Amino acid sequence: MADRIRVTVWNEGRHEKTNEHIAKIYPKGMHSVIAEYLANQGMEVRTATLDDPEHGLTDDVLANTDVLIWWGHMAHHEVQDAIVDKVYNKVLDGMGLICLHSAHFSKIFRKLMGTTCNLKWREIGEKERIWVVEPGHPIAEGLDEYIEIEHEEMYGERFDIPEPDTLVFISWFQGGEVFRSGCCYYRNKGKVFYFRPGHESYPTYYNENVMKIIANAVKWAKPNNGPQINFGNRQPLEKVAGA
Ligand code: ZN
Fold this sequence. Notes:
Helix content is 24%, strand content 29%. The protein has 243 residues and is an alpha/beta fold. It has a nine-stranded mixed beta sheet. Strand 7 (166-173) and strand 8 form a beta hairpin. The chain is globular, with a radius of gyration of 19 Å. Zinc ion is lined by residues 101-102, 153, 199.
């Protein structure tokens, strides 16, 4: 693994091309805003989008990615299954994956979770307050007890996910719902973090605290050089009587 964490920010990139309001918030796409922040943190960052050949996720790109960040919404179905399978295997082999906001319905997140990943939603621009519920977790480093986003889309429970290995954040919304908004999972050698904020029509990825959390998540999710696991039939390590 390189000294600098190698991050690939993947974005579907369609809303920014088709909606004037969203294009004004993210003229170069939200992937560019996320990438710029992480590059300023000293990370080695590249971007990839749905419309790039192989969705920008060639074997070479994946081989040089420690952590992949994923944002998608309106075109999940256009992501090729063969690419999803490659990303899935990379995660099991240790690549970190951070799924943002509407990526809860991405093929890759659903495949890794094995559940519907369905939820409640509402878009009226209400306030979101995100509470830290695991303050000792590396992803909570440098935060206050809670952060606030003035205008966001609401996501509400039940969120049909497997119980997180660690739940770091819970969101409260002005309209009354709550949501498990920062969920950590281990999948074989890989780590997966789901982080809720980031609806395309609000400037959420310019929020300093949101970006601090994403940067923390990259550091948490990077490969750890752990042992290579050998599955299957094994010879005993000790002499076993009667064997
Ligand atoms: Zn949304």
